[in-house]
Amino acid sequence: MEEQVYDVTIVGGGPAGMFAAFYAGLRELNAQLIESLPQLGGQVDALYPEKTILDIAGLPNIQANQMISQLQQQMQETPIDTFLGETVTDVVKDEQGFKIVTDRRTSYSKTVIIALGNGAFTPRKLAIDNVEQLENKQLFYYVTHKEDFRDRRVLIAGGGDSAVDMALMLEPIAKQVHLMHRRETFRGLEHEVSLLKQSSVTLQVPYLLKQIEKTSAGALDLTMKKMKSDEEKHLEVDDVIVNYGFTSDNKALTSWSLDFDEQRHDIVVNSDMQTSVAGVYAIGDGVIYPGKVKLIATAFGEAPTAISSVVNQIYPGKRAPIHSTSIKLSENQ
């Protein structure tokens, strides 16, 4: 029996991979999407399902889980083969294109699109003794359900976009929100920082957490040290959320039988989204090119570029549609 050979295999089921899958369906490619998690959505849905996403054109203030839900609905318009709970362990160049090996099966594909983001993420832990006993109880590294913090006194440690977003997200429901940063200024989007300064969030700057002790009443007594000073102060809260960022782990890629050009652990691509390996394309946060801005909106633009490049490679005589409205999804449209 002859093996099925896909036109394209999309590795990664986050927002970039999901939109690439939809567009592959629009272009009527024989495609598969493989995602290691048991559900679509990637890190966005797994770590920050209730985070407000601001950079999607025409969808103001949409929650991450709502965005993922709408992407899933969109994928149903032009469904492709989707495999969840599978990890791609190797991609090998062969005479048909590529052999795709997962922990469950082997398949074949003429081309590959990598949409893995920055790979697996591990939160940067709080460097304080004896905090392990508090983790996932009163010390957290991300927020999956904001209702868990209703009427609680919360301190968020961090100064980037995610920390600012968390503070603004929890402000309406928490009893009190503090945002601690080791600098006087924040690195978040200017508009969000302006909203932060207008909010009821108490800014604890420039401080670092030095110690956490649990009180007899079950609260947390925080010792905060002022930067470039011996000054310390105490603050009592119910929960601490540490948002110092994540370390990325692209072991999945390094185990493949392919050798990519990389820059600061990002895959280098050209304007067609092709990597240094012919027939392999990459999109999303894990790629780099001149002028790259790491936003979900950017990844949504990279997805149709990569799919169109795949079509041009496999079917060079096939004329691309001028725009998406020229594609007919069904007889009723």
Would you mind describing this structure in some detail?
With 333 residues, the chain is α/β, with parallel strands linked by helices. It folds into two domains: 5-121 and 247-326, FAD/NAD(P)-binding domain; 125-244, FAD/NAD(P)-binding domain (3-Layer(bba) Sandwich). Helix content is 22%, strand content 30%. It is built from seven helices and 22 strands. Strands 1, 2, 5, 6, 7, 8 and 21 form a seven-stranded mixed beta sheet that branches. A five-stranded parallel beta sheet has the order 10-17-11-12-13, covered by helices on one side. The chain has a three-stranded antiparallel beta sheet with strand order 14-15-16, with no helix packed on it. Helix 1 (15-26) links the parallel strand 1 (5-11) and strand 2 (31-35). Helix 1 packs parallel to helix 3 (64-75), helix 1 (15-26) packs parallel to helix 7 and helix 4 packs parallel to helix 5 (190-198). The mean pLDDT is 90.
Strand content: 25-35%
The helix content is 10-25%
Number of helices: 7
What is the CATH homologous superfamily assignment of the largest domain? FAD/NAD(P)-binding domain
Class of the largest domain, according to the CATH hierarchy? Alpha Beta
Question: What are its keywords?
Answer:
2 domains; FAD/NAD(P)-binding domain; seven-stranded mixed beta sheet; 22% helix; alpha/beta; 333 residues
